[in-house]
Amino acid sequence: MPQYNPPLRDMQFVMHEVLKVTDEFKALPKHADVDADTINAVLEEAGKFAAEVTFPLNISGDTEGCKLDQATHEVTPPKGFKEAYAKYVEGGWAALSCDPEYGGQGLPFVVNQCVYEMLNSANQAWTMYPGLSHGAYEALHAHGTDAQKKLYLPKLVSGEWTGTMCLTEPHCGTDLGLLRTKAEPQADGTYKLTGNKIFISAGEHDMTENILHLVLARLPDAPQGSKGISLFLVPKFNVGEDGAIGSRNGIYCGSLEHKMGIHGNATAQIVLEGAVGTMVGAPNKGLAAMFVMMNAARLGVGNQSLGLTEVAYQNALAYAKDRIQMRSLSGVKAKDKPADPIIVHPDVRKMLLTAKAYAEGGRALAIYCTMLLDKELHHPDEKVRKDAGEIVALLTPIVKAFLTDNGHIATNACMQVFGGHGFIKEWGMEQFVRDNRINMIYEGTNTIQSLDLLGRKVLGNNGATLKKFGKIIGALIAEEGVNEKMAEFINPLAYLADQMTKFTTELGFKGFQNPDEVGAAAVDYLRVAGHLVFGYFWARMAQTALREIAAADSQGKPADPFYLAKVQTARFYFAKLFPETATLMRTARSGSKALMDTDAALA
After folding, report:
1. Residue 478: enclosing H or E segment and its boundaries?
2. What is the DSSP-derived secondary structure letter of residue 186?
3. Whether the predicted pLDDT of 547 surpasses 90
4. 255-291: pLDDT as tens digits
5. DSSP strand E in 91-203: where?
6. How many degrees, rounded to 5, is the angle at CA 200 between CA 198 and CA 125?
7. How far apart are CA 326 and CA 341, in angstroms?
8. Which in 327, 369, 484, 497 has the greatest CB count within 10 A?
């Protein structure tokens, strides 16, 4: 059976020692009183909930899956899921970073980020039920009418009701301009929706008394394409003005998808037959309102893979220390045993360190992004808010795509550490691989994220936002450029930062002449950008760790093994993973011809 220990020490290191989040919060009136002790206490309890309540349901939930009653269209999640959710609501976890005006606790998003990382490690399929609800809350909070907020937000904040996002249809996925679901205006100001949606995560279940579906649909006179999409709130059960639950609405689960992973989550085909809904935001402006939820979901999906990378690493490390196979190439290490533990072998260490480096780098990036969200929403200085919003928009596709690609690499590597046992269900490793695989696909495939990064976020404003982040990297390089102990981290970072400007300009010129050049280079480009961002955070983490080691040395004390481990992992990252950027830039520069001039090859 697998195990899970919440990585509280590493979370505290990133928040309090590297990013100093509580100092940042002092500039935010809403969070000025939030201190490290409060954050640590909340995360300690959240870690217990994840490890003790949801983690034990992970394998059983995967085995059992969800069940649909075709007669009633009701879905029953795996055994224990409903009871775990009740404990989640009872503990107030749903309300953690929500607005106190609607019953929330008002804690920073940074705290929510760490809580959800642990929940994703423990049980991604279960965590998707409350996770999507938070995105629905964000969309309604930003674009809902006062009446909608008053009626629905308290129930989402408390966790009494859950939410979904209904975008995809059988004939259209990312290209939402093709969607056909119709919304007919009614005399009372409501709308009747008719259509079909697929791949709706947490689309139907009995864990709460009501589900709020956010549905994209077209008005009768809507323009063609994405400019003619509106957003509607469609509850499973109609809700009276007094908040009382009424009759069953015309929205139901037609069937459940049979999937590779996340079996414990109800991925539903949703049928709308005259379902009553109310509009969220302005007519034909539904994508703008839904993007609030979609961007939250993209950051959340990156967090899902971060959680799986961490738990896969923990189990692979424990196994590698215990499993004995052959002798070390450099001589016997375990003289009291007939063979050495496999952790002595170089390539096993490479697989373990790859997962460790991607988990800890991803954690730093994810926490940084949620800190930016807190600043974007609550900083009193408009320029600070604007800059924070621009940078988090730049980093969102990197969080979604780079972290999930890394999760694929890491969970596969950790399964490989187990050898044949990794392929066997009882160890839990193959489930981490299967569960992670969807993260590279939904909420916009990683290729879509790459096109968004290069085409919209970078070239769309002539690299202005990229330059802003470049200045942040430049400040670190200037600060540590003459420090010999930091040279192995700063020099490769400085080189890539310099190359990134030339690389981006070159791709921009090529794309101006032939748009396919952007499409051909985008995936490689995002991965290079991901390493640039990871390189920055790994250099900062090494910087902090080296300072603590030096401080201990000056006092004649032994260094904390935590800091020694951090420096060693940073060294591995820059030596073995970061150099991938050279190959990626070369393949990106090879152009589109080798891809597009292939009609004969693909005939």
Report:
1. helix 464-480
2. -
3. yes
4. 999 999 999 999 999 999 999 999 999 999 999 888 8
5. 162-166, 182-185, 191-200
6. 135
7. 8
8. 369
What is the rounded CA–CA span in Å between residue 242 and residue 265? 31
User: Which pLDDT band, with edges at 50, 70 and 90, does 139 fall under?
Assistant: very high
CA distance 29 to 23: 12
Secondary structure class of 561 (helix, strand, coil): helix
State mean pLDDT over 415-441. 97
3-state secondary structure of 221: coil
Would you place residue 385 in the very low, low, confident or very high pLDDT band (cuts 50, 70, 90)? very high
- The whole-angstrom separation of Cα 487 and Cα 581 is 19
Catalytic residue among 169, 443, 480, 517: 443
The stretches of 144-253 forming alpha helices (DSSP H) are 146-158
| pLDDT on residue 531 | 98
pLDDT at 143: 95
Q: How far apart are CA 459 and CA 4, in angstroms?
A: 42
Alpha helices in 144-181 (DSSP H): 146-158
Query: What are the structure tokens assigned to 181, written together?
Result: 């679901």
Reply yes or no on whether the pLDDT at 393 is more than 90. yes
Residue 443: active-site member: yes
Residues facing residue 255 across a β-bridge: 269
Average pLDDT estimate for 205-213? 98
Residue 154 vs residues 85, 134, 175, 238, 357: alpha-carbon distances, Å:
17, 12, 33, 16, 40
Average pLDDT over residues 323-344: 97
pLDDT band at residue 336 under the 50/70/90 scheme? very high
Rounded Cα gap, residues 416 and 311, in angstroms: 15
Q: Alpha-carbon dihedral of residues 243, 249, 254, 258, nearest 10 degrees?
A: -10
**How many other CB atoms are there within 10 angstroms of residue 478's CB atom?**
11
> Kind of pairing, strands 211-217 and 162-166?
parallel
What is the tens place of the pLDDT at every residue in 104-127? 999 999 999 999 999 999 999 999
- Can you tell me the distance from the alpha carbon of 188 to that of 183, in angstroms, rounded to the nearest whole number? 14
DSSP string, 338-373: SS-BGGGSHHHHHHHHHHHHHHHHHHHHHHHHHHHH
- The residue type found at 538 is W
Taking residue 553's Cβ as centre, other Cβ atoms within 10 Å add up to: 11
Cα–Cα dist 164/158, whole Å: 16
Contacts of 536 (CB under 8 A, 6+ apart): 472, 473, 476, 493
210, two tokens? 């009501």
Tokens of 523: 């995936």
d(CA 527, CA 405): 9
Buried b (16+ CB within 10 A) or exposed e, 517-544: bbbbbbbbbbbbbbbbbbbbbbbbbbbb
pLDDT at residue number 496: 98
pLDDT digits (tens, 9 = 90+) for 141-174: 999 999 999 999 999 999 999 999 999 999 998 8
Amino acid in position 175: D
Q: Which two tokens stand for residue 557?
A: 């004390």
The burial of 118, by beta-carbon neighbours within 10 Å (0-12 exposed, 13-18 middle, 19 or more buried), is given as buried
Flag whether the pTM goes above 0.85: yes
